C-alpha cells in the first residue's frame, strides 16, 4: 500500500496505512497492483499449498506489487509478512480433515474484498469459493483460479466411481472456467481435464522450489544427519506428506513391509501430520515395522537436512499435480519414487522412478532406483529441481494475471546490490 496523503474527501488516507477514511484500501498510484489471493485448506501445519502461497506472495511483492492473502482461521487477524498482508477470517473446521478450515461466510468474504479493493483476484479453491469469480466480474476485477489438483482424481480417492467422478469433475470444471477470466494449471497433467472440455481460458504456470534452502548436503553432513535415523547398512526412506486419504500415505508403509520381506534393511521416516496419523502408526506397530513419525517439521532447514540425508523420497499420492515435497527432495539431491498415476513422473523424469500404486510397485521402484550409482542419482535429482526456480514461477503467474514485469522493490534491489548479486 503506497500510504500517500493529500487525497480529497472521497479518498483521504492517513499517510501510513494506505487506507481511506471509509476503511477501504487506497488505490495504487505507482503502477503496482493489489493482488488479493483467497485460499482454503491452509493451516499452520499444512505443506505444499502454504509454501506455494508464501513464495508467490513474496515474489509478487519483490516485483513491485502489493499482495494480500486471505485465509480461514479461528479468529480475525491481520499481519504484515514477507509475502505481504495476510488477513485471517473466522472459518469453521471441516470435519474429518485434520484441522482444515473454510471461508464459508460469503458476506464476510465479500465485505473483505470490497474493503481491500483488489486490482486482481487469485483464488486457490474451485469449489466453495467459486462464487468469487462472479464477484470479481461484477466489480470489474480480473480473476484467476489456480487448479492445484485434479477434481476427478480427488473424487476418485474419496471412493467415487470413475465414470461418476469424471462427470462431476466435468461439470465442476466447466462452471469454474466460466466463473473466472483465467484458469491456471501448474502442469499439463492438471490441464488435461480442462482441455478435454475445450476450455479456452487456460494458462500454464508451474510452481517452483526453494533452491537455496533446499540444497544437497556435503557427504560428511549427510552421514552425520543420516545417523540420526538409520544405520550405515540400512536404506533410509522418507515420506514428506500430509497424512490424509488423497495422499495415500499408507502406500509408504506397504512399500516398507514389502522391502523388508525381500530382506532389504529399509527404515522409514515420516514428516507430516493429518487425520490418518494414528491409523498409520498403529499399522506400523502391528507389523513391527521401523517407522519414525516426526509430525510436522516446521523449520525449513531441518526439513532440508532430513530430505537430503535420505536414500529415496516416496511420493505415493496418485493425484499430485506438482508435488512440492517431491521437488524439494530433488532439490536436496534425493531421488523420488512417485505414483505413476500422478503428474510427478513427468516432472521428476530420470531423477526418480515411477511406481505402480501398490506396496509391491513402490518397493520394486525403490530397488530400481537404488541400483543406480549414488553420485549419479543425486546429481540428476538436483539438476532436475533446478528447472523449477521460483522467479520463473512468479513470472508465469503474473503473466496469467496479464501483468507485465515491474521493477523489483527498491529495498530488494538495494539489498542485492549490497551483497554483490
Helix content: 25-40%
- Tally of strands: 14
Q: What CATH architecture of the largest domain would you give?
A: 3-Layer(aba) Sandwich
Assign an overall shape: globular
Topology pattern, helix = H, strand = E: EHEEEHEHEHHEHEHEHEHEHEHEHEHHHH
Mean of residue pLDDT? 87
CATH third-level topology of the largest domain: Rossmann fold
Helices and strands: which structural class? alpha/beta
CATH superfamily of the largest domain: Glycogen Phosphorylase B
SS element count, helices: 16
Strand content: 15-25%
Low-confidence stretches: 1-23, 409-421
Strand order of the largest sheet: 3-4-2-1-5-6-7-8
Rg on CA atoms, Å: 22 Å
Domain tally: 2
Structure commentary:
It is globular and about 65 Å long. Helices cover 39% and strands 17% of the residues. The chain folds into 2 domains: 34-208 and 389-405, Rossmann fold; 219-385, Rossmann fold, CATH 3.40.50.2000. The longest helix has 18 residues, at 162-179. It is an alpha/beta fold and 421 residues long. The protein has 16 helices and 14 strands. It has helices spanning 48-62, 106-116, 131-138, 151-157, 162-179, 188-195, 219-226, 250-261, 277-286, 300-309, 324-331, 344-348, 359-370, 374-385, 390-400, 410-419; strands spanning 34-39, 66-73, 77-81, 84-90, 120-124, 142-147, 182-185, 202-204, 235-240, 266-271, 291-295, 312-315, 336-339, 352-355.
Amino acid at each position: 500500500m503506497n500510504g500517500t496523503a493529500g487525497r480529497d474527501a472521497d479518498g483521504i488516507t492517513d499517510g501510513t496505512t494506505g487506507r481511506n477514511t471509509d476503511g477501504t484500501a487506497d488505490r495504487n498510484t505507482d503502477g503496482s497492483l493489489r493482488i488479493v489471493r483467497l485460499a482454503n485448506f491452509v493451516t499452520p501445519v499444512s505443506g505444499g499449498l502454504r509454501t506455494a502461497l508464501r513464495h508467490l506472495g513474496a515474489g509478487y511483492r519483490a516485483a513491485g506489487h502489493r499482495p494480500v492473502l486471505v485465509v480461514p482461521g479461528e479468529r480475525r487477524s491481520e499481519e504484515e509478512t514477507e509475502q505481504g498482508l495476510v488477513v485471517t477470517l473466522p472459518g469453521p473446521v471441516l470435519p474429518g480433515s485434520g484441522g482444515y478450515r473454510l471461508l464459508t461466510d460469503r458476506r464476510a468474504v465479500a465485505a473483505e474484498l470490497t474493503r481491500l479493493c483488489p486490482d486482481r483476484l487469485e483464488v486457490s479453491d474451485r469449489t466453495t469459493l467459486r462464487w468469487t469469480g462472479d464477484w470479481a466480474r461484477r466489480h470489474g476485477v480480473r480473476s484467476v483460479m489456480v487448479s492445484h489438483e485434479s477434481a476427478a482424481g480427488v473424487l476418485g480417492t474419496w471412493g467415487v466411481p470413475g465414470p461418476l467422478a469424471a462427470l462431476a469433475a466435468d461439470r465442476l470444471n466447466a462452471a469454474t472456467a466460466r466463473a473466472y477470466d483465467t484458469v491456471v494449471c501448474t502442469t499439463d497433467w492438471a490441464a488435461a481435464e480442462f482441455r478435454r472440455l475445450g476450455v479456452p481460458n487456460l494458462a500454464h504456470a508451474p510452481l517452483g522450489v526453494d533452491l537455496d534452502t533446499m540444497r544437497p548436503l556435503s557427504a560428511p553432513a549427510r552421514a552425520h544427519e543420516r545417523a540420526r535415523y538409520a544405520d550405515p547398512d540400512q536404506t533410509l526412506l522418507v515420506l514428506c506428506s500430509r497424512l490424509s486419504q488423497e495422499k495415500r500415505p499408507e502406500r509408504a508403509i506397504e512399500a516398507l513391509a514389502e522391502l523388508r520381506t525381500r530382506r532389504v534393511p529399509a527404515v522409514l521416516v515420516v514428516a507430516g501430520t493429518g487425520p490418518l496419523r494414528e491409523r498409520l502408526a498403529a499399522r506400523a506397530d502391528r507389523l513391527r515395522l521401523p517407522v519414525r513419525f516426526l509430525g510436522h517439521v516446521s523449520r525449513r532447514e531441518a526439513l532440508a537436512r532430513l530430505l537430503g540425508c535420505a536414500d529415496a523420497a516416496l511420493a505415493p499420492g496418485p493425484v499430485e499435480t506438482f508435488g512440492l515435497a517431491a521437488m524439494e527432495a530433488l532439490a536436496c539431491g534425493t531421488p523420488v519414487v512417485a505414483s505413476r498415476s500422478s503428474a510427478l513422473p513427468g516432472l521428476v523424469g530420470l531423477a526418480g522412478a515411477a511406481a505402480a500404486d501398490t506396496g509391491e510397485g513402490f518397493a520394486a521402484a525403490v530397488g530400481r532406483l537404488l541400483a543406480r550409482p549414488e553420485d549419479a542419482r543425486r546429481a540428476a535429482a538436483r539438476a532436475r529441481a533446478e528447472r523449477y526456480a521460483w522467479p520463473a514461477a512468479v513470472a508465469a503467474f503474473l503473466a496469467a494475471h496479464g501483468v507485465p514485469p515491474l521493477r523489483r522493490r527498491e529495498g530488494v534491489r538495494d539489498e542485492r546490490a549490497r551483497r554483490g548479486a
